[in-house]
Design a protein that fits this description.
Number of strands: 0
Structural class: mainly alpha
Helix content: 55-70%
Number of helices: 3
Length: 63
Protein backbone atom coordinates (compact mmCIF):
# COMPACT_ATOMS: atom_id res chain seq x y z
CA UNK A 1 0.00 0.00 0.00
CA UNK A 2 1.46 3.33 -1.00
CA UNK A 3 1.64 6.46 1.10
CA UNK A 4 -0.82 8.28 -1.17
CA UNK A 5 -3.43 5.54 -0.92
CA UNK A 6 -3.03 5.52 2.88
CA UNK A 7 -3.49 9.29 3.03
CA UNK A 8 -6.52 9.04 0.77
CA UNK A 9 -8.06 6.34 2.95
CA UNK A 10 -7.45 8.37 6.11
CA UNK A 11 -8.92 11.49 4.49
CA UNK A 12 -12.02 9.53 3.44
CA UNK A 13 -12.50 8.11 6.95
CA UNK A 14 -12.02 11.57 8.47
CA UNK A 15 -14.59 13.07 6.12
CA UNK A 16 -17.09 10.32 6.95
CA UNK A 17 -16.52 10.84 10.69
CA UNK A 18 -17.12 14.58 10.36
CA UNK A 19 -20.31 14.00 8.37
CA UNK A 20 -21.51 11.46 10.95
CA UNK A 21 -20.81 13.89 13.81
CA UNK A 22 -22.58 16.73 12.02
CA UNK A 23 -25.62 14.51 11.41
CA UNK A 24 -25.70 13.47 15.07
CA UNK A 25 -25.54 17.12 16.18
CA UNK A 26 -28.44 18.04 13.91
CA UNK A 27 -30.53 15.10 15.07
CA UNK A 28 -29.78 15.84 18.73
CA UNK A 29 -30.96 19.42 18.23
CA UNK A 30 -34.44 18.19 17.26
CA UNK A 31 -37.19 18.05 19.89
CA UNK A 32 -37.40 14.75 21.76
CA UNK A 33 -40.79 13.94 20.22
CA UNK A 34 -39.37 14.08 16.70
CA UNK A 35 -36.35 11.99 17.70
CA UNK A 36 -38.68 9.32 19.07
CA UNK A 37 -40.75 9.36 15.87
CA UNK A 38 -37.69 8.70 13.70
CA UNK A 39 -36.30 6.10 16.13
CA UNK A 40 -33.25 8.05 17.29
CA UNK A 41 -31.81 6.52 20.50
CA UNK A 42 -32.50 8.18 23.83
CA UNK A 43 -29.69 10.25 25.36
CA UNK A 44 -29.57 7.84 28.31
CA UNK A 45 -28.37 5.05 25.97
CA UNK A 46 -24.77 6.09 26.46
CA UNK A 47 -24.45 7.69 23.02
CA UNK A 48 -23.02 10.83 24.53
CA UNK A 49 -20.15 8.79 26.01
CA UNK A 50 -19.30 7.00 22.76
CA UNK A 51 -15.74 7.54 21.57
CA UNK A 52 -15.42 9.62 18.42
CA UNK A 53 -12.69 10.00 15.90
CA UNK A 54 -10.21 7.99 13.94
CA UNK A 55 -7.83 7.57 16.87
CA UNK A 56 -10.52 6.00 19.04
CA UNK A 57 -11.56 3.78 16.15
CA UNK A 58 -7.98 2.74 15.42
CA UNK A 59 -7.35 1.95 19.08
CA UNK A 60 -10.50 -0.16 19.25
CA UNK A 61 -9.38 -2.18 16.22
CA UNK A 62 -5.97 -3.00 17.71
CA UNK A 63 -6.39 -5.03 20.92
Amino acid sequence: MSILSSIGRIATEYSAARTRARTERVLRSLPIELRRDIGWPETSDGWENRPFGLIARANSLNP
